[in-house]
Design the sequence.
């Protein structure tokens, strides 16, 4: 079971948020510690979720750095060619005080439990189908 949890979480994309002077730094990394390097990102202003304020690629350390020009909820979206990605909402307040909106740990636990539930349902459906086929063959 521990191996299954490790495998499922080893490619989970995590992040942390810091402020440096007037910049916001969002660092993306996998659960195994490897960096989300050179992957595409978009940063959206609080008042415009359609046109990116900034876009580019994460640096070698998996960081997105941007200089917000207004308070509010900023959204950072990352996406790799292999399908890994994340959407992080950063609350920027006065004097560049940042807070992450929401609790990603709770979200990750819920997502993990839902994944296990889906696997259980698929297994249950396949086993019922197998039982029906066995009964038909026995007749």
Sequence:
């Amino acid at each position: 079971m521990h191996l299954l949890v490790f495998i499922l979480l080893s490619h989970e994309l995590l992040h942390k948020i810091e402020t440096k002077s007037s910049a916001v730094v969002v660092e993306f990394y996998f659960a195994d510690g490897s960096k989300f390097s050179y992957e595409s990102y978009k940063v959206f202003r609080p008042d415009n979720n359609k046109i990116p304020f900034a876009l580019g690629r994460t640096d070698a350390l998996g960081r997105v750095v941007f200089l917000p020009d207004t308070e509010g909820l900023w959204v950072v979206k990352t996406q790799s060619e292999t399908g890994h990605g994340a959407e992080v909402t950063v609350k920027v307040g006065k004097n560049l005080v940042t807070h992450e909106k929401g609790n990603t740990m709770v979200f990750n636990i819920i997502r993990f439990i839902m994944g296990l539930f889906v696997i259980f349902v698929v297994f249950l459906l396949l086993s019922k189908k197998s039982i029906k086929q066995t009964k038909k063959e026995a007749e």
In short: The two ends are 38 Å apart (CA to CA). Confidence is low (pLDDT under 50) at residues 1-9. The first helix runs from residue 2 to 9. The longest strand covers residues 13-20.
